[in-house]
Amino acid sequence: FSEAERILLRIVEGNSDLELSDEEDQDALFEPEAEEDDSGSSEDEIQAGQADTEESDQAEQCSRRPLWSRNSNVLFPFSRFKFQVDDPAIVENNDVMTRENWTPMDYFKQYIDDSVFERMALCTNQRAILESGATLTTTSEELKTFFGISIYMGCLGYPNIQMYWASNTRVQVVAESMTRNRFYRLRNSIKIINDLDVSDDEKRSDLLWKIRPLLAKVSMYQPHQLGWSLDFVVYQGKTTFGDTGGMGIGEKAVLHLAESVPQGTHLFFDRFFTTINLLDTLKMKGLTGTGTLMSNRIPKECKIIGDKPFKKKERGASEMVVRRSPPELAVIKWLDNKPVVMASSAYGIEPQDIRTRWSKKDKRFVQVPRPLAIAEYNTNMGGVDLVDRMLSFYRMASRTRKWTVRAVLHFCDLAITNSWLHANDSVDDYTPPRQKWKPQPNEALRHYGAIHLPEMVDETHASRCRRSNCMSKTYVMCTKCKVFLCVSKKGNCFLKYHSK
């Protein structure tokens, strides 16, 4: 331990005996070396030797001190990281401003561009020649039509693909774009790579070699805003991450995916992934993290309060145990309806905010303090959940036994979902913590079919609703029909009036 380190350590431990003036502090931290004297040991050397002995004794005492200490405040507050655009090319080209008016299609082309469809058409035709001796004569434009039809089918959600061409359930935009047999043939023949170009060794070492070019393309575009699927890895069993080095599958997954983010980024993950070892490893890579922590993963040296005595405290109580040795780490326990344990290398308890909670015991709303780590976790967690939820809404029809086709359609869905989130998110919002997403449709979709719109009329008295059997009065009038129609919680006559 140097003199400066000992001083800082004593300050952290709250040692009030250390009171140095500015001059004394300068002398302690920057003491000049004693000049050599040929006449023998000088008084300065003797004092220096005694100081070295005292310093070694103090260092030995420091090494025996516990690494974890219970404290409600962080004397050296964990830093808030601000994401910065440091790519010279992007700053120079002012790419942030040019993306402001991008449509979802512009973002989609950053994932899957024309070269992907051209490669897919070439490989699909080559496959057909190898199997039947005749080319399929498909083109990149026809494959774009195929994927467009698949997207449309995913939105309509018919239980059977043949229904889109059947006479009673025929969908014109689908049936007129491509015949049913051609659609099936393309779907069964889609290839993204030529099998002859891949060696046997590559096939044995990579289980996903059949779709590898598409995976590389979809994960290549990495925008500077974080909050959606930035990178992914397809799980292939125990061999997915190779030798885990004693780490669990969750830890290894986070470390693998964290290779795509720049230093200074803060990561949030749930209890399946969070471990003290993971947070330490991320900190060594220049990344910080926050996540809920399982009770059986709390280190024995971390003497945080148990659940039983903690539940006796008032709702909103919190306790934190801090590990001061580098890298800094905090374990926070907070009492809401039940105890919640979190580990963070960036946030502690303070500053707390106040949240409103319903108390079953008191039958009323109560004000509950909430630690900073909990607030940041609740604000930033859920980006992957949002993508998964949006993927599930209009997933492409992929009822086929070929896993390659299902994989190609899935990653196309992923690119579409990411593109939608890109286009509907604020390009100026670079600084975490991010607010919850409120996606909005683009301008073209918002204005599509905008004919019958409600308008609040500035009249002295309300007018009778013109929908039959409605006795209500309203100030809302249709801008197209010029009739008054009520809009309320009891009944939406405006919507019913314009619906078949």
UniProtKB/TrEMBL annotation:
Residue segments, region Disordered: 15-64
Database matches in InterPro entries: PGBD
Annotated Acidic residues bias: 19-58
Record domain PiggyBac transposable element-derived protein: where: 103-217, 250-420
Annotated signal sequence range: none
Residues in coiled coil: none
Superkingdom of the organism of origin: Eukaryota
PANTHER family named among the record's database cross-references: DDE_TNP_1_7 DOMAIN-CONTAINING PROTEIN, PIGGYBAC TRANSPOSABLE ELEMENT-DERIVED PROTEIN 3-LIKE
Protein name: Si:ch211-255f4.7
Organism: Haplochromis burtoni (Burton's mouthbrooder)
